[in-house]
Amino acid sequence: MKLNRLRRTIDDARLVLAAGLVLIALGCTPRATLTGETATVRGAELLAPLKQELKQALMAGMQEGPLNAISVCKDQAPAIADALSVDGIEIGRTSHRLRNPANVAPDWVTAEMQSYLGDAADRAPKVVALLDDREGYVEPIVVQALCIACHGETLAPDLAAHIDEAYPEDEATGFEVGDLRGVYWVEYPRGSRSSTQ
Question: Which residue range is the domain that position 89 belongs to?
């Protein structure tokens, strides 16, 4: 009797191992949302420089008008993200309605963004376990009043023309204050610290 149970346990373990190997071979990434303050703090620390630098650049651009803010998003935002993507850290922002097609999200980010879209009350940052001893962190971007100038339902004609010229496939208008605009994301080796520390 005990021998039969042991054989079943071993067979079950083999089946789980085989299924895991098949998923890995097919390129499926196991996802698990991690909990814990340490993991969330680490992701937030790594993301903070992007948010801070982008906010400063956008505020400076908006002081000169929305046309300049569009240029900030088009030219400076990717440069800021690239400069912070060092030492195995990849950082960026994306949306379910892209303006810049270069901001397509990694697969794991898309899944988390869909989770936010499915639950409008869920706006908490998330940490996700990834393959190869890596973690991912996502934080929602919620539309603020200032965002409506470039992302609202009705845009000034000169601004709309500028966006059409810069982003012919733009999908990033029609938002209202409080809508999910997209997410900031960062992927990093476990144990990484911010390059600003």
Answer: 32-189
